[in-house]
Design goal:
It is globular, with a radius of gyration of 20 Å. It has one domain: Macroglobulin (MG2) domain (Immunoglobulin-like, Sandwich). By secondary structure, it is mainly β. The protein is built from two helices and 17 strands.
Length: 259
């Protein structure tokens, strides 16, 4: 009986290491209703959370999500509403004139702790049988154009802790082109793996259309072989333990249209 109990506990321990709450691993995407809005249009948009690109499988916690509309130095906060039916957070922005705009999203850091009894949201402090604990944070930037794209918005650094910055204007990219993208971690180049896909590429979870790595300057080259709404995603894990968690995991997504 004792051996059997130990065996069962061992199986549960192993399973707890691999069964990760969906909220930690889902991609965080800000998707507008159209990528080609017109001037003075009220543009609906949604915050998606999921493994299938670009479909929402879970609603992000609204209290931890901040949206803004950025054009140059002008930053406007955007209100969000829960949509339990579609499992999205919905919003709308008014685009006053022609040019390019950035829809910026931040899913603030949330701590999850894995114990031998399963995952629990919150600090590891005071918990028993802790396996690991992490703070999970996500960012997104979505580039949209009204009529004629401007020459500067696409390369604007908004200051996200983990940020993807195009070095080539995405508005000029067509299928077959290769674009350059710089990955920044707190303003400095980051060497990391870069994943990319486009809306509708696959109905299977976590299926990417392209993968590459940055060079030592944090620059990645991505080749676009299909028109559509593309997303580029990077991840960074900071293994600096605090009294609340063991590591800080960040993800960042850049969304834009390729015609």
């Amino acid at each position: 009986m004792q051996k059997r109990c130990i065996g069962v506990f061992g199986v549960l321990f192993v399973l707890s290491c691999f069964v990760v709450p969906a909220a930690l691993s889902h991609e965080f995407i800000v998707k507008p209703a159209t990528m080609d809005p017109h001037a003075h249009q009220v543009l609906p948009l949604s915050v998606l959370s999921g493994h299938i690109f670009m479909v929402s499988e879970e609603m992000e916690p609204a209290e931890h999500v901040v949206l803004s509309l950025v054009k140059g130095k002008d930053v406007k906060p955007v209100s969000i509403e829960k949509n339990p039916t579609l499992m999205t957070l919905d919003a709308a922005v008014t685009l006053e004139g022609e040019g390019s705009y950035l829809l910026c999203g931040h899913r603030q850091g949330v701590i999850w702790t894995n114990t031998s009894q399963g995952w629990k949201q919150g600090s590891k402090k005071g918990l028993k049988n802790v396996i690991s604990s992490g703070k999970y944070e996500k960012f997104c930037k979505t580039l949209v154009h009204v009529d004629v794209p401007d020459k500067d918005t696409y390369k604007h650094v908004v200051g996200q802790d983990l940020e993807i910055v195009p070095l080539d204007d995405p508005a000029s990219l067509t299928p077959g082109d290769e674009g350059r993208f710089k990955v920044l971690f707190r303003g400095r180049p980051l060497a990391t793996t870069v994943y990319a896909s486009y809306d509708g590429f696959s109905s299977r979870p976590n299926t990417w259309a392209y993968m590459t790595e940055t060079d030592e300057t944090g620059v990645a080259y991505v080749k676009f072989h299909h028109p559509g709404i593309w997303m580029i995603r990077v991840k960074n894990k900071i293994d600096q333990a605090t009294e609340d968690y063991d590591a800080h995991v960040m993800k960042s997504v850049l969304v834009f249209n390729v015609k």
